[in-house]
Amino acid sequence: PLQPQRAKPVPKTSRKSQKKKREPALASSYIKQVFRHYAKMPVARDAYQIIEKCCEKYFKQLSDDLEVYAHHAGRKTVEMADLELLMRRQRLVTDKMPLHVLIERYLPMEYRKLLIPVAVSGNKVIPSK
């Protein structure tokens, strides 16, 4: 007599191998919000994809440059001086436009408090080094 064939068991794959690893990136909603703020006019949806790619390339180049500056100085940590040097080379920071003016102009108050030293009562400076 004929016997029914048994189905071959399919090997189970782990969920970890199925997940595609993504590189960290800025949220697309954040990029749209910032671009809308500075563009002051409507922007087509397909233009945002190009803007996101440009932002990704810009920040990749920025991080690579900061890494090179720290390596050149013999350090493994990027410091504020590296960022200021990069901004000077990009001509964002000049003698007429120092870094703290850019910080005050474009960053929210909670970040300003962390980056710009302020003297308070009791002869203390915040943030302390």
TrEMBL record:
* Segments of skewed composition (Basic residues): 13-22
An example of a GO molecular function for this protein is: protein heterodimerization activity
Keyword Ubl conjugation tagged: no
- Specify whether Nucleus is a keyword of the entry: yes
GO (cellular component) term, any one:
kinetochore
- Protein's cellular compartments: Chromosome; Nucleus
Q: Record's Pfam families?
A: CENP-T_C
| Organism whose genome encodes this protein | Asarcornis scutulata
Q: What's in the keyword line of the UniProt record?
A: Chromosome, Nucleus
Q: Under which name does UniProt file this protein?
A: CENPT protein
- Give start and end of each CENP-T/Histone H4 histone fold domain: 24-117
